[in-house]
Specification:
The longest helix is centred in the C-terminal third of the chain and has 44 residues. This protein folds into three domains: about 170 residues, no CATH class; about 220 residues, no CATH class; about 140 residues, no CATH class. The strands form four sheets. It has a nine-stranded antiparallel β-sheet with strand order 4-3-2-1-6-7-8-9-5. The protein is of the alpha+beta class. The protein has 22 helices and 22 strands. The radius of gyration is 45 Å and the shape is elongated.
Length: about 675
């Protein structure tokens, strides 16, 4: 009995303890779900600590899983794509846009805590090991990792909430609860092209000045592979017009080289313009890492020729190393030269049907892939690229000769002097109408009101300047004329007759006429002085001058003439000539050095850019759209056209042109 009582007491205690510590999971789940409203899903997430990013998405229609992975290099701090052999990602901006939506991502509501509802809301985890071809309700996984491989944030984004904008069902992989949040999915892409700089060459079509076409075929021989050349063509674009610089026809015996199109043909510039414009559409679709042994200059070294597996890999992409070390491509070569002196060599290899050679992971398929396939029919092509420096774009500057002696300096000056003196001599006879216009204003300023007299004076001044000069000299200086008076022609249309010498000052402004007038046909700076000084001397002809004023003015003019006569060119002393030589030598050397430095700077900038480009191109096969390649492949028949191809029918204008308008001003062709 006592034992039974003990058991009863123990049972009562157990029931009491069970009641106190009873499980409240069902109730607390609901309470916790309600408490989650308005709280951050990742309260401690710091996007600056992100060192990796993974996005995975399941395509239920194709039953394929696509994913993209990015990682930050610990040394360079640059983002790369491990899922694409470590190809460099575009920039940190892309990663920031992908991680930003996870910062302060708040719960709007909790819709379920039942694991069985995950497929209903589309938040099943895209786990490659657990998914089957018939899987449904699979969401998109976005996972951000830290520098020590710890997970900073992980979220499964499911279906959109009906009737809302940018609201989706989401779930944290380690939890069963399904939440509703506001989040945009645009930044979460598994498309490889969205994470890289897709423009391979990063150039504008208008920057292309040179095009080189290398048309050949790879043929199988007894010893392996050989080269069957068709033609080489080098073309230059100058002033928006193409010209043929070199054409080598390997189908003709002797491989003649010329700069003219084949007989009966002409250059078809529209094909070259289409090629140049299509360059901007050359985008990266995917990449593959090149085998070791293929250098940045696309030369095959000894290690490659001894590596049968690497050589086979290269040939499978359409690139064939020769014994010389050169590598040729099954799709031919294209050279593009820019204004800044960078020349790009593009070698096109074999085609690749989308998805046939790369795994789904490498392809990085996206929701838009079906549309991309319809554009290029799923056909892609391998491409190798390298950059070269075209030093012909950096010609050596024309340097001035530095005179070593005074004699050489004087000889240079004497050689340059006739050219300077002869330059304006052709102007009066070339355009006699020009000097005839200005003497009329001179006549008007001097009070000549007779029309017939003006005509006669103007004709005399413009047609016979030497006669006017003689008359003016005789009037101003009846005795031995000074050098200035005989070399400076008069700008007045006709001299004013006077019975007295010019020094007497019988006419107002006589001193000004004597000192400043020249032929207007020369148009030099002295003419401007005459035009500004002459009116001031004749504006008030009615006011008489006193004898003293006239005498003083005449004396001043006489003194000026005498000073001119007494100051011919003074002979330089040997010391002055030597000093001038040293100054000239220093000036020429500095100018020559400036020209040399400018060229060297341009060359160094060009070399630097080529090195940067080859560092980017060195490790990769690029995979591009075959439809773009077809626009860059110019055949012989596309390059040259016969006259009947280019000549329009009688009474018709060329395509895209309007009748009666010059070429190029018509309507666009609609291409």
């Amino acid at each position: 009995m006592k034992t039974t009582g003990l058991f009863a007491a123990a049972a009562a205690l157990s029931v009491s303890l069970a009641w106190v510590f009873r499980p409240t999971t069902v109730v607390s789940e609901g309470q916790l779900a309600e408490e989650k409203r308005g709280s951050a899903i990742f309260p401690d997430f710091n996007p600056d600590s992100a060192a990796s990013l993974k996005i995975a998405k399941f395509d239920e229609q194709l039953a394929t899983l696509s994913r993209i992975e990015l990682a930050r290099d610990a040394k360079t701090q640059l983002w790369t794509l491990p899922s694409a052999d470590g190809y460099p990602a575009d920039s940190e901006k892309q990663v920031s846009e992908a991680t930003a939506p996870l910062v302060e991502l708040t719960v709007l509501s909790t819709v379920s805590t039942d694991r069985g509802d995950h497929a209903l809301y589309g938040v099943v985890e895209p786990n490659e090991q657990e998914l089957t071809a018939s899987a449904s309700g699979v969401g998109m996984l976005v996972q951000v990792g830290g520098p020590d491989n710890q997970i900073l944030a992980s979220l499964i984004v499911g279906k959109p909430v009906t009737g809302t904008e940018d609201q989706h069902y989401v779930r944290v992989p380690a939890e069963d609860a399904v939440y509703v949040v506001q989040i945009k999915k645009d930044a979460f892409s598994t498309n490889f092209e969205k994470w890289i700089k897709g423009d391979i060459l990063n150039m504008r079509s208008m920057d292309i000045e040179n095009i080189g076409l290398r048309d050949y075929a790879i043929v199988r021989t007894e010893r392996g592979f050989g080269l069957g050349r068709n033609f080489d063509a080098d073309l230059l674009n100058k002033d928006s017009k193409w010209s043929l610089q070199k054409f080598v026809d390997y189908t003709v015996e002797g491989n003649p080289e010329t700069n003219q199109p084949p007989e009966g043909k002409s250059l078809q510039e529209s094909a070259l313009n289409d090629l140049r414009n299509s360059i901007q559409n050359l985008k990266i679709v995917n990449v593959r890492r090149k085998p070791l042994g293929l250098a940045a200059d696309l030369k095959a070294d000894k290690s490659l020729s001894e590596n049968a597996e690497a050589t086979k890999n290269l040939q499978s992409q359409g690139f064939f190393p020769m014994e010389s070390g050169d590598v040729y491509a099954s799709g031919g070569e294209l050279l593009l030269g820019t204004k800044e002196g960078v020349r790009y060599l593009l070698r096109f290899g074999n085609t690749q049907v989308s998805g046939s050679a790369l795994t789904d992971e490498q392809e990085g398929k996206s929701e838009n892939e079906s549309e991309e396939k319809s554009d290029d029919q799923g056909v892609r092509r391998y491409l190798l690229v390298m950059a070269q420096l075209d030093e012909s774009k950096f010609p050596a500057p024309e340097l001035k000769v530095v005179p070593e002696t005074v004699e050489e300096m004087l000889a240079q000056e004497a050689a340059a002097q006739p050219a300077a003196q002869d330059a304006p001599a052709a102007d009066p006879s070339a355009d006699p109408a020009q000097p005839a216009a200005q003497p009329q204003s001179g006549d008007a300023a001097s009070g000549q009101n007779s029309d017939s007299a003006e005509e006669s004076d103007t004709s005399s001044s413009s047609v016979e300047p030497s006669t006017s000069d003689e008359k003016q000299s005789e009037t101003q200086q009846p005795s031995e004329p000074s050098a200035e008076a005989t070399t400076q022609p008069a700008t007045d249309s006709a001299p004013q007759p006077s019975a007295e010498p010019a020094t007497a000052g019988t006419t107002p402004g006589a001193a000004v006429q004597k000192a400043g007038f020249k032929f207007v046909s020369f148009g030099d700076a002295v003419q401007e002085d005459a035009s500004t000084s002459a009116p001031s001397a004749v504006q008030e002809p009615a006011q008489p001058q006193t004898g003293d004023e006239v005498k003083a003015e005449g004396d001043q003019a006489t003194d000026t003439a005498e000073q001119t006569q007494l100051n011919p060119s003074r002979q330089e002393t040997p010391e002055e000539l030597k000093e001038r030589l040293e100054f000239l030598q220093e000036s020429i050397r500095k100018e020559n050095q400036r020209l040399i430095d400018a060229r060297n700077e341009s060359l160094n900038q060009g070399r630097k850019k080529v090195a940067e480009l080859n560092a980017r191109f060195a490790d990769w096969y690029y995979i591009v759209s075959d439809s773009v390649y077809q626009k860059l492949k110019v055949s012989r028949d596309q390059l040259f056209k016969s006259p009947e191809q280019s000549a329009p029918a009688a009474g018709q204008s060329p395509a895209g042109e309007l009748p009666g308008l010059p070429p190029g001003l018509g309507l666009p062709s609609g291409e």
